[in-house]
Amino acid sequence: MSDTVDAGGPVTKHPAAMPPPPVKRRKFRFFDAIEKPTEWLIRLCGWSSIIGIVAIFFFIFKEAMPIVPRLDWKEFFTSSRWIPAPGAGNPAHFGALALIVGTFATTAIALLIAVPLGLGAAVYISEFSSGKMKETLKVVIELLAAIPSIVWGFIGLMVLGPVLQKFTGATQPTNLLTGGIILALMSVPIIVSLGEDALRAVPDSYREASLALGANPWETVRRVLFPAARNGLLAACLLGMGRAIGETMAVLLATGHSNRIPEAFTDPIRTMTATIAAEMGEAAQHSDHYCMLFVLGIVLLLITCATNVAADLIIKGVRKKGKA
After folding, report:
1. pTM value?
2. What is the largest CA-CA distance in the chain?
3. Cα separation of 141 and 136, whole Å?
């Protein structure tokens, strides 16, 4: 387009003849580039626990499967004859009743001791201690949780066992009672830590309202804090139970490792976890003995899953009751 001359003015160009503005190039941004991969990574992390559980179940069932169709399940659950490697010409026996009873017996003793101690310590730390005392107790609880299980086993074998043997007249220092007490001491730090967190999560207004109505501190704990924190306290007790059921090295050293159904607290017993740990190194790979140890692992997994499902149902029932 031609130029236009205004009278008495400068020469101007028509707007259509003006050159287009330069295109602004978008700068490369590193965080924009990794946004999508990061999103997928976060999703994978969210699914990782489910994937891990499925993988664990698949592995254990795969290793146990060769003997599952041939296993006498009645003998497994009703007999105490665990003879995985008999002499030549003798049949093997895989009766796990004594192992199952030993596992539940030690866990029951541990819970009877650990739950009152753990909840009592959690209440004291959360509601009655303060200052340096509170911080010292929290540090001590954390140190107890950090002690390796093999060290607890040594304590049960060399310290607690002889003391209990002296006072109870037991035939040997390692027995059901020794193992139960050691498991209780190992479970207490978990119950204390989680229980204290649950109590501290209760709003201060609950405490203030209770005290304003004339309740003393213990009545406030019993009638206000415990009902308000019941879900967290129950979860703490169940996690302590899970620690007791799944413990291996401590019970291997502290229970006597004898395949028998206990008739007294001073009888030696054996647990499923200790049996797996003690015999896995001796079992030939893919032999019946090897596969049976994985069957014990399946039983432990089912017990754990049943415990978690029961806890979930209990918590849901408690919540519904609280809302009603």
Report:
1. 0.81
2. 126
3. 9
Those residues whose C-beta lies under 8 Å from the C-beta of residue 124, and which sit 6 or more positions away, are 137
pLDDT band for 42, please (50, 70, 90 cuts): confident
Rounded to whole angstroms, how far apart are CA atoms 58 and 124? 44
Q: Decide if domain 97-323 falls under CATH 3.40.50.2300.
A: no
Burial grade of 171 (CB within 10 A; 0-12, 13-18, 19 or more): exposed
Closest CA to 254 of 150, 115, 167, 114: 150
Distance CA 288, CA 73 (A): 14
pLDDT in tens, 298-320: 999 888 888 777 777 766 665 56
Express each pLDDT in 169-210 by its tens digit.
888 889 999 999 999 999 999 999 989 988 988 888 888 898
Phi and psi based region of residue 287 (left: phi greater than 0; alpha: psi -120 to 50; beta: remaining): beta
**Whole-angstrom Cα distance, residue 110 to residue 188?**
9
Least confident segment among 20-24, 29-33, 224-228, 269-273: 20-24
Residue that the structure tokens 């010409």 belong to = 89
- Delimit the domains of the chain by residue range: 30-83, 97-323
